[in-house]
Structures are given as C-alpha cells and as structure tokens.
Amino acid sequence: MIPQSARFRPANRNVLRLLSGHCLMALSLAILVLAAYAEPSAADSLEVELGRRIYREGILPSGSPLKGLRLGSIEVEGAAAACETCHRSSGMGSLEGNIVAPPITGRFLFATEDNRPTALVDVSAPKNVTRAHTPYTEQSLAKAIREGVNVGGRQMSPLMPHYVLNDAEIKAVTAYLRQLSKDLSPGVGDDTLHFATVVAPGVDPNQRKVMEDMMRAAFSQRNASQQNYSGRMRMPIDLIPRTLRNWELTVWELQGAPETWGAQLRENYRRQPVFAVISGLSNTTWAPVHEFCSQEKLPCLLPSVPLPPAETAFYPLYYSRGVALEADVLASHLRKQDNKATRRLVQVYRDDEVGRGAAQALTAALRDSDIKLEDRVLSGQNPSALKEALTGLSGQDTLMLWLRPSDLAAVGKTVKQAPERAYVSGFLAEDDYGVISKDWAPRVRVIYPYEMGDKRQKTLKLLNAWLKTWSLPLVDETFQSEVFFNLLFITDLTSQMLDNLYRDYMVERAEDMMSLGSNVSAYPHLSMARGQRFASKGAYFARIDQDGQLAADSEWIVP
Amino acid sequence: MLLNIMKIRSNTATFNRNKLRNHWTIILAFLTVCLQTEAYADSNPESSTASPKYTRSEAVYSLPNIEMLRHDQVKTRFPQELDDGRPVILNFIFTTCSAICPMLSGVLSGVQNKLGDEIQGMHLVSISIDPEYDNAERLKEYAAKFKAKPQWQFYSGSVDNVKTLQKAFNAYRGDKMNHSATTYLRASPGKPWVRLDGFLSSDDIIAEYHRLKSSHSSNTGGG
Fold this sequence. Notes:
Number of strands of chain A: 17
Distance between the termini of chain B: 73 Å
Strand order of the largest sheet of chain A: 12-11-13-14-15-16-17
CATH topology of the largest domain in chain A: Rossmann fold
Shape of chain B: globular
Number of helices of chain A: 19
Structural class of chain B: alpha+beta
Number of strands of chain B: 8
Oligomer: heterodimer
CATH superfamily of the largest domain in chain A: Response regulator
CATH topology of the largest domain in chain B: Glutaredoxin
Largest sheet of chain B: 8 strands, mixed
C-alpha cells in the first residue's frame, strides 16, 4: 500500500506531462530492468535461447524461417535474414564501406546517460562513434525491427529488413540482446589486459627468445605510450575516452606429448585467464592449441606454425594454411602443365606431424590426376635412410622435398645427380638455401609463400627500423615479420575496440581489419573477411640464384 | 523539470522500506535520463542513414584487356566478355561480405526473376573484389545461393586484374572492406555506362534498365 503522501498530486501538471510519451517508455523500461533483477528462471533462459535462434540462425520458435523485407521488395529468409549477418555474433555491429550496422546489444540499445557505452562505428573516421539516443523500450525496439523506424522516429538504413515477428518473438529477441555482450570477457582486468603466447616443445630456443623479446618490447612500448595518453593527443582516436589498461604477457610453454597439451593449457588458463593468445610457435602440430582456443572461445591470432588444422573454427586465425597451401599450389601447377611432363612425382618427408600432414595434403590435391605420386618416408638420423629414399630416381622424375635445412643439405651429398625438377617447401626450408648443393640448386624450385626482392624489402623496412630501435637482432626475417605484424595488428584492434573488450568482437574486427592496416609482413598481402581463417592464400615458385638468393619464377599462384 | 523530480524524490523519501525506495530511485534515474535524452533523439546516428535513394550518372569507361575466370571455370577475356552485344547489368561483390553484397545480389536475383523472358537476351555480371578467396567453386556456390539463371555470371581473376577492372569502373576504394553499393547498366557495346550509386530495389533497376533501353532504341531508331 502506497502511503498517501507518496501519491502524485494532480496539481503537479509537470509531473503528469513527464509521465507521458517517451518518459512512459522509460518508466516501463525501468520496470523491466527491475524485473531483470530477479534470479534468471528457466522461462527466462528459454526465452533467451529462442531469441538466440532468431538472432543467430534466423529460425523462429515455431521452427519456421525468420522472414523480412529489404527495400520494400527483397525478401530475406532464414539464415540470410538472421540479425547476426550484419550485427555479428557479438552484437557489436559491422562496417562495410560507408554502411554501418550499429551495435545492438542491450548495453547500447537501452543505455542511459550514466552508463552509456561507446563504440567506433567508422574506423576510417575515428571521431565517428556511437552517439546518445533515447533508450529503447520493448515497444520502440519492436517498431525498429518491424518497421525500420528507430527510437528517434526516423527511417533506418534500407539494409535493415523489416521483420515479421510477433510479440512473443520480439520479446525473445529483446531478451537475447539484453544479455548479449553484457560482461567484458575473461582476461580483462580493471587495469590490465592479459595476453598469452604459446610455445610448443622442440622449438629452437633462439627463435623462442626472439619472439618473446619482440613481444615484451612491443608491450612495454605500448604500455609506456598509454601512460602518456592523458598528456598528449597523437591521433583523433586518442580523443575517445576509454579505460587504459596495461598489457601483460604470459608465455605458456608446453611440454611433452601433444596429447597432454590440452590439460597444460587449461591449467595455465586457470591460473591466469587471458583475453587472447597472440602469435605462438610450433615445429609440429598445433591442433591441441587450436582445440583449446575453440573450446575456451579464446581468440588465437596468427601463430607461426607450419601446419594449422585443416578444420577451421571461429576463434583461431592463421597467416596461411602452411604446408597444405604449398601442396595445393604445387598440385595446381602440375595439373596445368601442358606437356604433361610430370609422370611420376616422388615426395620425400620426415615421419613427423608436419611431414605426414604435407604429404597427405599433396596426395589429396593430386587425387584423380594423371600424376603418379610415390611417398618416401625418412625416419631417424641414419644417412642411409635418405639414400634409400632417393634411390631408383630417373631424370624424368619430379621430386617434392618436404624437408628442413639439415635434411636438404644432406640430399645433395647423398645423391650427386639431381632429377629434372625438385621442389622444395618454402615453409620448411627456413630461407636457408645455401645448404642446397651446387648440382641441385639450378633444378630446384622453391614453393615460396612470401614476397621476394625489392617489394619485400620495402614492406620490411619498418620491421628493420623497429628492431634497431629496440636493439633486437634480425634472425629469421619471415618469422619475425609475422610476429611484428601481429603486434601492430593487436594494437590497432584493441585501440579500435575501445572499451568493448569482447573476444568475439575482437575476431570479427580482425576479420574486417586484416587488409586495412599497412602490411608490414613478408607476405605480399593479407586479407580476411567474415568466416575466412587464412590471411595469405598463395605462393610463388622461385629459383635459387648463384648467390643463394631466391628470384620469382612464376606469378603469385592462388590454388 | 529537474525541480519536479526533486519533489518526487522528496516524496518518495518518506518510504521506510529501503528496497522499494531503491527501486523508485532507479525509476527516477530513468526519468531523469529521459528528460536529458529527449534532446538527443534527433541527433541519433542510426536515424541519419540514407533513405532508399540513389544517384544516377552516365560515364564512358575504358575497360582493360585482361583475363578473368568465370564461375563455370572458363577463362575469359574482358572487355570482349561484356561486348557480345547483350545489355549488361554489372556489380562488384564478394562471397564472404556480410551486409552490402547479399543485398546487391538479392536485388539482382529479384531483377532476373521479375524480368521474366526479357532476361533471355541480357547479361548480368558480378565481379568478385576478393578474387583470392572467391575461386570459381565458391562463386558457383554463391550463384546457386541466389538462384542465378544462366544469364547471370560471376567472375574472379588475379588481384591485379580485379584491381585494374575496379579502377576502370571508378569503383576501386583501396580495399574490399571499403566498397560501396554501385550498379552499372549498359545498353550495348560502345554506349556509355549508367552508374547507379546507392540502394536500389529490383524495381528501381528494372525501371532504369527500361529507361535505358527505350532511349537506346529511340537513338538507334533515329540514327
């Protein structure tokens, strides 16, 4: 029972006016919020799940496809009509050209002055951020969804379909949006943003040190610049208020058999949850890390690994498909040869994860072709194994050497006479072509997934200058360029995400931004988009010059 | 108005039950915000997006002589591929694009369906601006998704060729993520292109096409 004194006196006309129109909506919203304070019941979670199906899959609670009309005449239906198509899994929206699909999570839709979040909606114009609007109510949101009229009473982008949804379905979508990207992801502290990198066993300690040193240098450079943030404005984007968090790096060093890596990763993560895994090193499989990232919904961005798993997932992103890409490039080249010169192709590989993976990829790529493929497997360090692998080759044969420098060096010593053509994996040769014997070198073609010559020197200028500034050595150019690109990329990504530190949003932004920044890597160009998981998609064939340098012998080949 | 709120607040302050009072405070906070935000409503960025209008312009584009790959795996040469005499409706898309391309492709799909038999003598052309990902196979899948008829063909090519082609159509924006919604129409080889920038419905395109066709036939009839 409300005491008499608390009732609004009719004489107070202003108050009555206040309760009309928009404000009534705000009041009902407030009541909704109060309702949301209650413990989530089974009915609530069912509603969220129904909303999720509409938002993510375009499926109505009845099982029928979601339907909408674009531009008054184009019917969209089902998955193509799902909100997620434009507003993405995170609900944080997307930007294509000058087309903005704004963030539509509850935090943005129902924001009030005291808790208004900000997101960048146009990366090319950093001042273009989400602006204040009257908080939506379920009714005004329904009008936006059904009629394309926003809370301000204006027509929204013609890209936004007008949906056919009943009240219960609107309620479900609203319930889903309310909880979508509500809390910041794990790994985000009040003043720290935690990252990890992963090092698999068997990695060259020097390579590991180079990576760690580069990452630590970049982290301290970034943290120092954040401290200066308040005193100096460098870019328009710096004007947008956000929480300043220090970046912290943990190195997760794996040990033992790959079967045990998953447990080690989970234990590391339990001790210190991270927001994302960046870079990483492995000479062998990467599958357990890939699986861990998928299960934990953890962005794992651009590790330096020769054989990413063939099965892609949302959270792990890679520079390329590694040796599997090389296999496809070779297969597509051999299939196109006019003179059908290659009758027999002999592939030589070590009996390890990467060797087997490469060989399997080439076998698959040459299935149903005229080319007869033969496998020669090396195991152990016995020189006779290599000799055995290379016996019985005729001048007509073509060789594919999935071998690292130590084995490549042994090839020329074991068999003096090179076959007509021998292909070498650029990923595995580690840019060490001096080891190939003089007799072999003219007949070798390297499948080379990186840029060469002047173009490469131009893109790597920044890396070289940066290494000099930090007195860091240049040991492995392609590998270090991968780490360097990644560090700059993460810096761009997080700065454009502002305070919206959601992991799925990071992946979505990464997809869209991969090709937008400057390419400081050894790859000719890097590009992704929604659902794409490999940034570089081709390779050159290169010959070895007399001074052991590579020169392009083909166009850039995309299989 | 702020004063009124203060009055309400003082009234509610007579409540002894803390919990309820807190809830009222929240409601009041919303009311306060409501007053403040009403002023913002008109500057809402979501409301400032364009209405479904487009701009029309005519241009003569000199097309490069380049090799492209059609979605049926056939290597073709531009501009010959466009110069077989048929009227052309052309756009730039990529298969993993989330917002603009599905719309553009949906519109073209509508065009081919609404034109009925008239589509027979026409050529609908969609060129991928992400050619390294959009190989013939992926374009074929994409074509099937939009139920493309045989008159609607999809093209890919080398990065350089696609870039050259976009530049020729004054459509190159540096990166696929910066592309805009543009549709090109041409009545026959040698004629200028009609460039339509913005969001057109299938009916808009058909109307533009008929307009172009009638002016073309009256021109050729007169000449």
